[in-house]
Amino acid sequence: MTRFIIRRVLFGVIVLWLVATTVFLLFFAGPADNVARRLAGPRAPMEVIEQIKDTLGLNRSMWEQYASFLGNLLHGDLGISFISQTPVTTLIMQSLPGTLWLVAGAAVLWMAAGITGGVISAVRPRSVLDRTTTVLVLAGISLPTFVLGMLMVYLALSVFPWTGLQPGPYISPLLDLKGFLQVMIMPWVCLAVVQAAVYVRLTRGSMLDTLGEDYIRTARAKGAPERRVTYRHGLRAALTPVVTQFGVDIGTLLGGVVVTESVFGLQGLGQLMIRSVRYGDLPVIIGAAILASAFIVVANIVVDVAYSFLDPRVRLA
Fold it and tell me: For the whole model, what pTM was predicted?
């Protein structure tokens, strides 16, 4: 088990190195004046260009710049924003809690709803409940996130104002738990509805395949209770593709839930990315891109470890 985890971690490190190298080549390869102009923006004066060249050491050789770039990354130094003159690490740490809470809360909701709905539909295929769930899944998949979010905001503010739910900036639960829940419940539900539709369909298909396996029929022939057959034997094996999708979704969403944060006005990584792209703040864009890659790599490592518990044969792969 330890060797399995070490192999996966080393593979993740190699992936992050390749991502960092690609980012460096995309943004820093080329003549020093062109790189500085690209980082500062097309309207930046020459004194700003010269300052960037001196600060980043763009007049050095490419190998020296590359070594400095990797060294700064290893020390957590992502540079300084050219717009706010604030370290990129500080900006990311200020925006990260909102995104973490949004993704974590929504993940609990969509996993609970997705797995429960998928199992119920698979146990009773072609029933009225199964067909109703299928219709709801298609509606959830087809409904754009921003449309659902705007509809929820309208209902909360105009039709059901007594609920107290309202969009707004992120509030720490340590400072105001009630205000935190009022702000976060609608984004959680909005994100979870869209994601849960995918997980219901995925869980249902995987469960139907698993419940048709020979070892399931053998367990039933031995007189095992149906609940045990379904949840202990069937669900455990059927969760492998679900866990795969979960790892991909978590890693991707942690990089910035752009649409949901924009609709509800949350100050997270998605909003930070929008502002950075709008104003051409490339140091922040670079830092956020590398952080998003790190989230995806870590999520996939966790998924691989989860595989080893769901299916011990994976440890030998």
Answer: 0.81
- Which residues have C-beta within 8 Å of that of residue 38, sequence separation ≥ 6? 27, 282
**Separation between Cα atoms, residue 99 and residue 105, nearest integer Å:** 10
Residue type (1 letter), 89: T
Return the number of other C-beta atoms located less than 10 Å from residue 277's C-beta: 14
State how far the Cα of 49 lies from the Cα of 44, in Å rounded to an integer. Answer: 7
CATH topology of domain 92-310: MetI-like fold (1.10.3720)
Give which of 102, 72, 68 is closest to 87, Cα–Cα.
Answer: 72
What does the DSSP 8-state code read for residue 143?
S
Determine the residue type at 105: G
For the chain, the domains span: 2-74, 92-310
Q: Are 151 and 164 in contact (CB under 8 A)?
A: no
> Counting every residue, how long is the chain?
317
pLDDT of 30 reads: 66
pLDDT in tens, 242-279: 888 888 888 888 876 888 888 888 888 888 888 887 77
